[in-house]
Specification:
heterodimer, A: alpha/beta, FAD/NAD(P)-binding domain, Immunoglobulin-like, 3 domains, seven-stranded mixed sheet, 28 strands, 19% helix, 37% strand, globular, B: alpha+beta, CPE0013-like fold, 2 domains, five-stranded mixed sheet, three-stranded antiparallel sheet, 10 strands
Amino acid sequence: MKAYNYDVVVIGGGPSGLAVATKLAEKGYKVALIERKDELGGILDQCIHDGFGTKLFNKALSGPEFASVFINKAETLGIGIHLNTYVKNVEIRENEKEIVAISPHGIKNIKTKAIVYAVGCRERHQFEIKIGGTRPAGVYTAGMVQRLINLYGILPGKNILIVGGGDVGMIVARHLYLEGAENLLIVFPEKRFAGLPRNVQQCILDFGIPYQPQTVVKEIIGKERVEGAILVRVDEKWKPIPGTEELYPCDTIILSVGLIPYSLKLKKIGAKIDPRTKGPEINEFFETTIEGVFAVGNLVQIFDYVDDAVESALIAADGVEKYLNQEPKEKIIEFVPGKYIRALIPHRIEWKDDRNIIAFFRANIEKENAHIELRDENGNLLKRYFRRYIRPSTLERIEIPRELLQDKRQVTLNVSED
Amino acid sequence: MSQRTEILCIKCPKGCLLRITIVTNEVKVEGNECPLGERYGIEEIKNPKRIVTSTVRILNARYPRLPVRTSEPVPKEKIKEVISNLKNVVVKAPVKKGQIIVKNVANTGVDIIAERDMERV
């Protein structure tokens, strides 16, 4: 067994993990980066479309281009990069954490002061959306298809039904269309696409790809291979309307039905999980409820832009530094999602600092000329933010000046009624 | 004759809804929060352009496909032609990020470049 000792261990070599590791290495800490796969970059290696980095670098890069910026940095900074390494066990002790990891070079015993989890999210699969019928070959998740097309040049089928109107589904639909799928149809239960409006324009409307809102798959038909699907219309509450069933013949069904933070491992070591985001509860520097254990990127909540995920990692790097310097915490200010707010991070404010607090939230209504209000425990208005549009599909980012929160115990974020 | 359309700006993540009025030959853009939006709105009506991304076959590399893209946006109606021009392209590893894979693809004056390094294995 090989033994290692670091200041910080980052688990996960995707964009967020790379960002937090490089920033901490630049600050002079001894950093390790553990990646399960045999290369760094995470999901970006299969995201060959452009549009990454518009916030960070002010230009639209492709996924691999975005990743390479951080990979090159990580390689020159002397970070301990452990590829093909799987974290088997994490033990939390006061001021020290011990990781047991498995690799082709044997078992590694890694001691560290702080851990940053950056393990991202997983795709929801067919068993989570209650599709009836048989289970033949030809049912894929959208990310899997993206991988097949972009890394291996394999088209999974010719007549394709895509379930779900999220960003990944739309981007995959465009690739399938351009790479030679004959028939495509997208169905989703909402009235409108759930993904970013810019993707609706670039991926769907640009090419006239057919879609059918307020529709779900009732049943998959097929014995060996998918032969079709029974589609059914749904009402506003996503309840199937009897008598609206129709058979749609296809050879492939692609599910793009949402991403979920992969917080299983954090839960196992005792971190508190937020049922709204499905990620861990965090403070303003992305520290979980376990001291010295941080979480960043899509593991915390699903970000729309890799730029925002990377920002979360850069904020966390400052938090890790605070933890390693043993900076004292102040009292806790609770952060509560109020009316029309579906999810909100951070969950609490607890460090003394003078930087603005960066908060991300997702509304659950669609509204034009919306006001977002920050109120204290007595209902006093602290700050109002204006947005021309808010939509459930768009993750909003706000900055909160810290002095507004002095002597507060709890603050609530609402979307104003008027 | 005037014609009104609404399009969504894709220049930055803000995603302004542009309200566009076309009066014979003049394009008027409203709803944009920055000059990029106005330029995009006019271009989107007169000559819409997109970055095209795809893959080409690569030999002796860790994956059988190399991700590539156009170095500049190309006219929208050229997208299919750009993609079909890549069908029979085969390159050999190693390839460096930004390396030109196809020059002046589909006579657009734009090159196809590699999106990533791909080492020889």
